[in-house]
Design goal:
The chain is α/β, with parallel strands linked by helices. About 40% of the residues lie in helices and about 20% in strands. The chain folds into two domains: about 220 residues, Vaccinia Virus protein VP39 (Rossmann fold); about 50 residues. The protein has an eight-stranded mixed sheet, sandwiched between helices. The chain has a two-stranded antiparallel ribbon with strand order 4-5. α6 runs parallel beside α7 and α8 packs antiparallel against α9. The N terminus is likely disordered.
């Protein structure tokens, strides 16, 4: 018996070596993903601003504070959200434009610094979400993930771009140059005991991981104070509430059975299990 259990444990541990996508929630794109998962009032951070287009999407979520972090150095090239339409941008010039754009904005903090150095300056559990789209090398992504982890609140979101290629939308072959993102994420999830929770299916996909919930469903309340509930989130809350109510009822039944000194414990247990299942189904 112990040998069989040991074999099962080995299989389970080995299976976790790769990113498990069996329970992943998929969104049409990253805009839909962040709008569904981030509520108003959140404290957020974007690593890798480039032209600031996605920054405006994040700002439209009405965060209480949004840190926009980039080194803003040199001439840098990138495709669009699908990896197409490659263009080069003079980042020092773009930085000056963004300074003008956000002059006087109380909700935006424009940061010209290396991402891991800036994150180190933040208090722990300060962020409700972070979106990483900076250095795409294996070492760079792993460094950003490691730096972000303690700064994100438990239950908060760690997200990022260029996780994989969706060839239904992408037309540009980057020659495997983005493989470091997936490799770094795999190592990070394994080290922290987390799982991949959501993927946004743009041409260059985005990922989302909820910190501190490796075994529970991803669909929970949106992060940020005052965040509402989408339809999927509302279903999750309903099931969770029903499960708690059924568990409380079960505990009461067990206590009553023990007080009554039930003659047949196995029979009582089987009856309680059946009633628990019926109760849970009926509640939702």
């Amino acid at each position: 018996m112990r040998a069989a259990l040991g074999a099962i444990l080995i299989v389970v541990v080995c299976a976790r070596a790769a990113v498990d996508e069996s329970r992943v929630t998929r969104y049409p794109g990253r805009v839909e993903m962040v709008r569904d998962l981030v509520g108003p009032g959140a404290v957020g951070c974007e690593i890798g601003v480039f032209e600031g287009n996605f920054s405006e999407v994040l700002r439209s979520l009405l965060p209480s504070r949004l840190y926009l972090v980039d080194v803003f150095q040199g001439l840098t090239g990138s495709g669009d959200v699908d990896g197409n339409d490659y263009r080069e941008v003079d980042l020092p010039k773009k930085y000056l434009e963004l300074v003008q754009r956000y002059a006087g904005a109380s909700d935006v903090v424009l940061v010209r610094d290396l991402s891991h150095l800036f994150l180190a300056s933040l208090p722990d559990e300060h962020l409700d979400f972070i979106y990483i789209d900076g250095d795409h090398s294996y070492a760079g992504v792993l460094r950003d993930l490691a730096a972000a982890y303690p700064k994100v609140k438990r239950g908060g979101l760690i997200m990022g771009h260029d996780y994989s290629v969706n060839w239904d939308k992408a037309t540009t072959d980057w020659g495997g140059g983005l493989a470091g993102v997936a490799q770094a994420l795999e190592v990070f999830l394994s080290e922290k005991g987390l799982r991949l929770d959501a993927v946004a299916m743009d041409g260059m996909t985005s990922f989302a991981v909820r910190k501190g919930s490796p075994s529970s469903p991803f669909l929970g309340p949106r992060v940020g104070e005052g965040g509402g509930l989408g339809e999927a989130q509302a279903r999750f809350v309903a099931y969770k509430s029903a499960g708690r109510a059924a568990a409380a009822w079960l505990r009461g039944c067990v206590a009553a059975s023990l007080r009554a000194e039930a003659a047949s414990l196995p029979a009582t247990a089987a009856w309680l299990c059946g009633r628990f299942v019926d109760r849970t189904r009926g509640a939702v």
